[in-house]
Design goal:
- The longest helix has 18 residues, at about 1-20.
- This protein is an all-alpha fold and about 80 residues long.
- It is built from three helices and no strands.
- About 55% of the residues lie in helices and about 0% in strands.
């Protein structure tokens, strides 16, 4: 009886210990992880301060066109 319990405990310990072992992946040698994509497009940032951001939010709430609002706010900034 003691031998059966000891065998069961040993089998349980062996199976849980292998659950935390890293998996062997023999087919991964020579595989490149490089991601192919086109060059990222450069976007022009607005660089707004907090007040200007709130003006943009207000313009969006009113349904104003984004480009028009950005131009208006940037022209106010230059003055």
């Amino acid at each position: 009886m003691k031998l059966a319990v000891a065998t069961i405990v040993a089998a349980m310990m062996a199976s849980t210990a292998s659950a935390f072992a890293p998996a062997a992946l023999p087919f991964t040698r020579g595989v490149s992880t490089q991601i192919f994509s086109s060059e990222p497009e450069e976007e022009e940032g607005l660089d707004l301060d907090l007040g200007e951001m709130f003006e943009m939010f207000d313009a969006a709430d009113k349904g104003e066109d984004f480009e028009d609002a950005a131009a208006r706010i940037k022209s106010q900034e230059e003055k």
